[in-house]
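Re: your question from the hallway

Yes, I did run it. Sequences:
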Amino acid sequence: MNKHRFNELERAGVYKAIAERRDMRHFLPDPVDAKILHKLLQAAHRAGSVGLMQPWHFIRITEKKLRNDIYQMVEQERRKTAKALAEREDEFMKLKVEGILECAELLVVALPDKREQHIFGRRTLPEMDLASAACAIQNMWLAARAEGLGMGWVSLFEPKVLADLLKMPKGSRPIAILCLGHVDEFYPQPMLEMENWTKARPLDEFVSENEW
Amino acid sequence: MNKHRFNELERAGVYKAIAERRDMRHFLPDPVDAKILHKLLQAAHRAGSVGLMQPWHFIRITEKKLRNDIYQMVEQERRKTAKALAEREDEFMKLKVEGILECAELLVVALPDKREQHIFGRRTLPEMDLASAACAIQNMWLAARAEGLGMGWVSLFEPKVLADLLKMPKGSRPIAILCLGHVDEFYPQPMLEMENWTKARPLDEFVSENEW
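Structure:
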């Protein structure tokens, strides 16, 4: 043991958030406290980032019409994805894949423009900006779970259409539609497992030593 | 307040891990307990993933020669990055950007091959596999902090060279060299700020409403 280790309850909190975080698609209509929303955005913003470039931007959607436009856009992509899945089309169409109209808070996360100026850690891996932004979203997801709030990451959209809808600058790129809000229950396991879409495989299939 | 909210100490643990996690480059030689390493990998593996595809693979490096080869490869990229930074070359060369030879555990994380089979949530945003893998790494980073262990994400490498070195299948792609281990102190703020490389900007510059 070492002096930097958290105490037992704090550690339990971290592991519990990791274990019980779910990609949520079912929400209750109750509003999210503004202070809590700010804490969650702050948690996201505390993520590390490649070369400290902080490659993220959060757009809170409060206009009802805009939320509906986003919903329609996602619905279009949902149908296109279903078609692309061919023999699983019907099965996919039965899944609930987003909670855009029901969730209390809707946020869009985007990579900013002018990312090409950042070379540190990105000369050979330019996609590290997305990796950093995903770390920020994971922070937010875990903090939301600790607050008892559910969050879902929707990636069923045409980035160019969403960028235009939200007047994003050229060079920026939306990466997530986040549905956030109170929930009746957190899924006891990933919803895609509960719905028999697929089965998660155990850790030992993903670890090797010294070579693949 | 709601019934799903964690208790105060558990919540404090989550926020503390988020606030005190650092991208570490300075390590102590003490070994990492095998059980703790397994817990950290399990924490990573508990991340959600687009369509539940679990797009990650962890390679633990235990051969000394291999670790040294990885170090040399990163050292080459460090010099190339420095050149690419032009007028900041000297300043960059003075930064400590990795702890590959000092850390107790060295891991490489890669996206797997055959990712093109996964269409769910990736038809228009194929890069969501990387986003999921980054969420897994963030889980591991936070769990490591809770255990009092430091972790650093090194992205200064040529993915093709590293893939060959570790005999990765065609179509897979390494995204991170993770340095993990005990540390003397966690940096009180991001090291790139302490070294005056750059300054983090506050959250309010990254949030807007209904449009960019």
